[in-house]
Amino acid sequence: MPELPDVEGFRRVLAEHAVGKRIEDVLVRDAQVLRGVSANRLRKALVGKCFAEPWRLGKWLVAPVEGGPETMVLHFGMTGSLRWEDGEPHRHDRVIFCFDGGELRYRDMRKLKGLWLVTGSPDAVLGDAGPDALAVSRKEFRELLQGRRQVKAALTDQSVLSGLGNLLADEILWRARINPRTPVSTLEVGDIDRIHAQMGTVLRAAVKAERVPPWPSWLTGRRDEPSGACPRCGTTLRHGRVGGRGTVWCPRCQPG
Predict the structure, then answer these.
(1) CATH of domain 4-126
(2) Is 252 an active-site residue?
């Protein structure tokens, strides 16, 4: 599932290759990914225009249209991506934005989310999305967790904090040595500050890699191994469900 680092990578693709370039055509190959806009309206609104500098809010990517009231908003669901390519389209390329020298392609196998075109502020689409996880201060993070239940459920609740999914939340809690089922009410201030510090460390490294990296020194590099061992202590990792989500943790490093 694309999480904050992946979406930051998609933002960089759009910024590097498409910003300021004239959109020559918009090819909607599967209208099922369009949300609240028809293929015809999308094409009429964008052809001949340029994208302005895009920005990210957690798992959302926002691409304003230069000199106009429209803004394109994308969410990548479980399997989406944004790619700059040319040549024969992939069978899962749902919408293609054509430029001189290449194409920006919204690719998604499962089509769980999609693409919006809004006039004016994108807030109507972004709704109750919480602040971007990479931009949250330590003080704000403490406030956001107040009144929440299990710590992992709080981290992955997009209305609390935008951008963290299963992989990042498990990685952060493993590094902070906090069991994912821990009630937030039992955490000390030092525990919360440690989670915040590890969140920053993990996100900065993952953003640099433009993905959640499966490095062997990270929990993400071991979690899918049949007999995965904790990268820190060698204990066999536990697998379960927390808040309805598949979760991995180390019973020795994260007791509870």
Answers:
(1) 3.20.190.10
(2) no
